[in-house]
Amino acid sequence: MESTLEINHVSKTFKNDQESILVLKDLYMTVNNGEFVTIIGPSGCGKSTLLKLIAGLDLDFDGTIIVGKNPVSGPSKNRGFIFQEHRLFPWLNVEKNISGNLSLKNPEIRKRVDDLISLVKLKGFERVYPRQLSGGMSQRVAIARALLRNPEVLLLDEPFGALDAFTRTHLQEALLEIWERNKTTMVLVTHDIDESLFLSNKVVVMDAKPGRIKAIVPIDLPYPRSRTSKSFQELRSHILNLLDHHPQDKEDWCF
Amino acid sequence: MESTLEINHVSKTFKNDQESILVLKDLYMTVNNGEFVTIIGPSGCGKSTLLKLIAGLDLDFDGTIIVGKNPVSGPSKNRGFIFQEHRLFPWLNVEKNISGNLSLKNPEIRKRVDDLISLVKLKGFERVYPRQLSGGMSQRVAIARALLRNPEVLLLDEPFGALDAFTRTHLQEALLEIWERNKTTMVLVTHDIDESLFLSNKVVVMDAKPGRIKAIVPIDLPYPRSRTSKSFQELRSHILNLLDHHPQDKEDWCF
Amino acid sequence: GCNSDAGKASGESEPVKVSIALNGKMGPLVIAKEKGLFDDEFSKLGAKISWSEFPSGPPLLESLASNRVDLSFLGDGALIAGIDKKLPFEVIAQTGQGGSSVRIITQTDGKIKKVEDLKGKTVGVASGTTGHVYLIKALKAYGLTTDDIKLINLQPDDAQSAFETKQLDAWATWNPYYLNNIEKGNAVALNVKGKILAPGANIARTGFAKEHPEIVEAYLRVYKKAADWQIDHPDEASEIYAKETKMPADTVKKIITSEEPNIFFTEDAIKAQQESIDTLASVGYIKKSFDFQKEIHNEYIDAAFNK
Amino acid sequence: MSTSTQTMAQNKQLVMREKNKQSKIAKSAVRGSTLPLVVLIAWQTLGSAGILPAQLFSSPSLIVTAFIDLVRSGEMASHLQISLIRALLGFALGGFLGLLIGVIVGMQKKSEEYLNPSIQMLRTVPLLAITPLFIMWFGFGELSKVLLIALGAFFPLYLQTFLGLRNVDKKLYDVARIMEYSRLEQITKLMIPAALPNILLGVRLALSSAWMCLVVAELLGADRGVGFMIQDARSFMQTDIVFVGIIIFALAGKISDSLVRFLENHLLKWQDSFKA
Amino acid sequence: MSTSTQTMAQNKQLVMREKNKQSKIAKSAVRGSTLPLVVLIAWQTLGSAGILPAQLFSSPSLIVTAFIDLVRSGEMASHLQISLIRALLGFALGGFLGLLIGVIVGMQKKSEEYLNPSIQMLRTVPLLAITPLFIMWFGFGELSKVLLIALGAFFPLYLQTFLGLRNVDKKLYDVARIMEYSRLEQITKLMIPAALPNILLGVRLALSSAWMCLVVAELLGADRGVGFMIQDARSFMQTDIVFVGIIIFALAGKISDSLVRFLENHLLKWQDSFKA
Ligand SMILES: Nc1ncnc2c1ncn2[C@@H]1O[C@H](COP(=O)(O)OP(=O)(O)OP(=O)(O)O)[C@@H](O)[C@H]1O
Ligand SMILES: Nc1ncnc2c1ncn2[C@@H]1O[C@H](COP(=O)(O)OP(=O)(O)OP(=O)(O)O)[C@@H](O)[C@H]1O
Ligand SMILES: [Mg+2]
Ligand SMILES: [Mg+2]
Predict the structure, then answer these.
(1) How far apart are CA A112 and CA A118, in angstroms?
(2) E11 with E140, same domain?
């Protein structure tokens, strides 16, 4: 199935009691089937909001978002989502949080859940409840939960934010492998420029107040990538520059 | 007042219905008055748990923790805490979350709250409720909340995890400034080696299963530090090595 | 319960507070209240009335036991229960013989013509009430017991509903229920041989009567005055009751004219009451039988009218 | 897009939202009254056709007539007034105590151990069965009526407060401890706001419980009040009036519900919860 | 520390914790019975001293005697048995419907708009006033009793379920939508578990409400049952028996409370909430 993603002139306004805030302004981009895109931008610029629109969790926006051939009309398990907060169900233990509405009695599911638990290094914690997990462990459960469903489009909102360098690299590599194997279309939000360079075909740099796309940088390096290569370093400073462009002169834009 | 921190042979076991898990094993370290210590270690190794013990939120452990002259007997506002999750009160808006039980009608508090809101770049969001904030914005509110109280010891659990590079650097610098001005004793948990090298006098490297101290690396570089200096790079690879020491050979230790 | 502190009988100082309780909305006391008949007699004695109203006997008895009621009147069921429980009151007079206050009514289809026909039929009654006593006595008169019928314990409203929807073949009940149903053509009353009486009584709290016998006497005089007025002016009395109860005046008139109030105990009534006591004792509602004659304190009525 | 056109567009949106909101409220009011209207119409029809015995069921038109009569004669006002005063006083007293003791028991393990078992036992004692105690202790004046109503209002608020406090997220409690909230601040600035959804449900239940206890309270030597009116009409087979009373009770339920919903909309707007 | 000594130490700890737990339970049981005991003793003393009139207040010893008599004669067993069956059936029916309709109304805005206003109105109608309708529709057999009890059990569960669902965190609901939970899965695997604290409170209230409705239900043509026993004893001022009844009701309250607490301890152990 085609899982191209087209975002056409998307704007999003949050309406409060009195005022309305323009959070995303006229976004325009295309993510090809099987492409790996990362979004990078200042805190509060609307990255999570954008992912929610793509996921179909919020349909109240201007413009159109097309996944495959059809405009988004609601959530679907073809579009997986790893939320910024882990959002585990507190009444389910780790393995049940991962399996969710899929039955662990199904041997195939069972096996895949077990594999994913090994992948995110949580062996031994299958029966533990979320309140007994550390921040990073919860995040890893959420990752496993999304991966289990093999979505065609995977939306990842800072999935590795709470992880140590090694677990992080390990999971980045695992993600790349899954991407290459399944041809999943990936949209990943991150604050880590290295991460975005290491993983993606395309880095979308966003700007804040109102959230909009500042630049789309294609990353044409071959996989696997080396973080120390020269082209890597060059791209890094390029993106750093893009991000740094404006200082705090627009503090009062929104209000 | 003396705010030296002595951690003497601290062990912590979580007891479940059937089993008990040793999470911290025989921790021993001293943090001098006004020192800046960072803790770094794999996800789930007990960093947050250790901070909670120091804060006095959990008194059920073996060994002793002494702050100043007295053993910890409970929480105190002299020991501020920025939690790993932001833990804002959902029914209070941003400024009230920051002021908490201090009255905003007191002009001094009012001024300090406003200053902190500017510091964390949330001007214009004073009256906004937590559900309307982005992940990074919530984290910044939590930082402002802890800073308002000017604690003698500040415990920070991955405070900058959800922030973009620029906001992060900005707040790191602000934190250093506050530290130098107030001589606060800082204990910061992070996954970012650069962050720990940039900020602290001492890096505590922890290991997992069970959580224990693997090494304490003094950082004798002068402030302000340059992330590109040679000694910085050397220390980074030293710590990276320390962290990388053991691969996944201990997977089954705990259970 | 502030009556005891008015102990100094020297009427001038503070007025004695007298708590008179209305038991339902019918009876001469209502007339006395409406027409202010107590004013004269009581102001002479320096007594002040505080009125209260109870829908039925049991809560009234509870109030009396906690010294909150001084003077009132009870139906036979509550009266017997109260005496049996040795509640602190004295029977000071009758209210009426109760010859026409209770009946067994049946459906109009004519299937039940006499008491014997009740055998095996479904009969509604509120357990422990005057209707219950009446039913037992009526059955007994024909050699039957409650085991011969299907007895259903229902409060009047519920019984009304059940009767109208023909779930009950018969219903032992009192006024205004039975007359109302007969008036509306929903029911016919069953003839019972002999006369089954359900006499009610005026009562006074023992402690109060000891301290203020003169007020008790005055109460009885006023009660009689009101009763006589009702007998003499049935239409006006009906108007008063109709206004209170919101029943049609002619129905009320039928109720009050079917039997005159009479505060002097009659032989028949005492006999009937004794039978009720024995009946209740035999079904176990009261622990043991007692002599009703001995419970009647005629001294007040004597003092009030025979001096 | 220029700023001015944008502002215009936004204004238009706002106006439309306002309209939208109003039409939504109207719609939900219409939907809400559908069922009662259907029942009323069926009732009237069956009543007029003689299928429902008027003796038992009255009929909407008869009830309205009875209601108008009661209003005309001023009786209704006097019944309502006294009942409202009793119910409100009882609610205020019982609700306040319920909240207070709920908070104490919720915050202190020890008071829970001492008090909660007894309260749980008292909770199920039927009020009807303990009126003698009230008469004995408090007479049958207004005091005992108000106390009886207070008792009815006490339990819902107590239970909801207690449970609400015990469901407060420990993570937030730890934050308050770190900031050295005093015990009072913990209660007023953390526990009560966090338990507010439950407490408001408690208020709703307590309001209607207070109202329902009127029926029992006004057995105690009352000569006015809606509860008395019902009881009295019952013993004289005034079905119309009984139904007038029932309808007043039903309306009270609806009003208390709307009142608390209004409070909820204002006090709980911070919630990010599921909204069908 | 070698592994074996460590295990030993752990074992010791476990044993001590077990003991600790038991002594804690014992302690809280003692504390819980303090207040009732004090009341009992005061009552007996005042009763024996003649300060409390026995006609109104009986006394613990008289009540125990009455209780023993009732048990000996087998009456108690028969009252209790029938009442238990009625209450349980009514609870099962009303509770089930309350949960069901609560879920439907909680999940669907439209059904809320249609049903909730009517239910809120019915909620405050005093049961005592509508028993004639029950007799009319369902007769005076067990059916109408069970239905009346079911009505009493319905409202608490309905209200708590409805509110519980509406307090579910929208963030978790979004997760379920992303995973394409079916409507049924949303209900059974998300909404109900998340609303469980409230639903369990609803069960607790419904259980005791069912029990309390016995007093009214057993006015409808009953000749056995605890409610009947109380009513009957009341009309003949058999205070001892009234109190036996009251105490049975109180115990039922305590038992239903303990039962639900037990459920809570097992079903809500995932909660990380404030525990005094
Ligand atoms: N429910 C809401 N109501 C009103 N405003 C909202 C709401 N959700 C988000 N916002 C606002 O939208 C903007 C973008 O939020 P978003 O969560 O998308 O940011 P983000 O780019 O993900 O930031 P971060 O990196 O900090 O997570 C913020 O200014 C935020 O205040
Ligand atoms: N309440 C609890 N009950 C049982 N086990 C717990 C509890 N809290 C934490 N743990 C366990 O303690 C260990 C350490 O947790 P902790 O939160 O301290 O980790 P951490 O070092 O902060 O990890 P991260 O970097 O992922 O936040 C984990 O294995 C976790 O499962
Ligand atoms: Mg975000
Ligand atoms: Mg942690």
Answers:
(1) 10
(2) no
Tokens for C125?
């009654």
Residue range B3-243 forms a domain whose CATH class is: alpha beta
More confidently predicted of C282 and E114: E114
Chains that touch E (3 or more CB pairs under 8 A): A, B, C, D
What residues does each domain of chain B span?
3-243
> Minimal Cα distance from C152: which residue of E?
E221
Please give the mean pLDDT across all residues of chain D.
84
Q: Identify the three-state secondary structure at position D270.
A: coil
Q: Which residues of A64-101 are buried (b: 16+ CB within 10 A; e: fewer)?
A: ebebbeeebeebbbbbbbbbbbbbbbbbbbbbbbbbbb
Q: Both D240 and D151 in a single domain?
A: yes
- Asked if C82 contacts C61 with a C-beta cutoff of 8 angstroms, the reply is yes
For the stretch B96-130, pLDDT in tens is: 999 999 999 999 999 999 999 999 999 989 999 99
Q: How far apart are CA D31 and CA D36, in angstroms?
A: 10
Q: So what's the pLDDT on residue D2?
A: 44
Domain enclosing residue D17, as ranges: 1-49
* Residue of D177, D179, D186 to mutate for B, most B C-beta atoms under 10 A: D179
DSSP label at residue C295: G
- Closest atom of ligand 2 relative to the B21 alpha carbon: 5
How many domains does chain D divide into?
A: 2
Let me know whether D148 and D247 are in one domain.
yes
Residue E196 domain flag: yes
**Domain shared by D100 and D214, yes or no:** yes
Over 70: is that where the pLDDT of B246 sits? no
Residue B46 Cβ contacting ligand 2 at under 6 Å: yes
| Strand C187-189 versus strand C170-174 pairing type | unpaired
Q: C274, exposed or middle or buried, with CB in 10 Å at 0-12, 13-18, 19+?
A: middle
Residue B15, chain E, CB below 8 Å: the answer is yes
For residue range D152-177, list pLDDT tens digits in order: 999 999 999 999 999 999 999 999 99
For residue E69, being part of any structural domain is answered with: no
CA dihedral (A172, A173, A176, A182) positive or negative: negative
pLDDT for the residue numbered C75: 84
Residue C5 has pLDDT above 50, yes or no: no
End-to-end CA distance of chain A: 44
Q: Are residues D85 and D44 in the same domain?
A: no
User: Per-residue pLDDT tens for C109-166?
Assistant: 888 888 888 888 899 988 777 888 888 888 888 888 888 888 888 888 888 888 888 8
Are D44 and D79 members of one domain?
no
CB pairs under 8 A between C and D: 71
Single pTM value for the model: 0.89
Q: Assess whether E117 and E212 both reside in one domain.
A: yes
Report residue A77's pLDDT band, with 50, 70 and 90 as the boundaries.
confident
CATH number of the domain residue E170 falls in: 1.10.3720.10
- ipTM here: 0.88
In the predicted model, is pLDDT for residue B67 greater than 50? yes
Residue numbers in B near D182 (CB within 8 A):
101
Q: Which of residues 146-165 of B touch E (CB under 8 A)?
A: none
Distance CA D273, CA E15 (A): 43
What's residue B245's pLDDT? 57
Neighbouring chains to B with at least 3 Cβ pairs closer than 8 Å: A, D, E
**Is D60 part of a structural domain of the chain?**
no
Q: How many CB pairs under 8 A join D and E?
A: 200
pLDDT in the model for residue A103: 92
List A residues 176-235 in contact with E (Cβ-Cβ < 8 A). none
Task: Look at residue D54 and tell me if it is in a domain.
Answer: no
Say what the alpha-carbon torsion angle D53, D58, D60, D66 is, to the nearest 10 degrees: 160
Q: At C29, is the secondary structure helix, strand, or coil? A: helix
Give the Å distance between the CA of B145 and the centre of ligand 1.
20
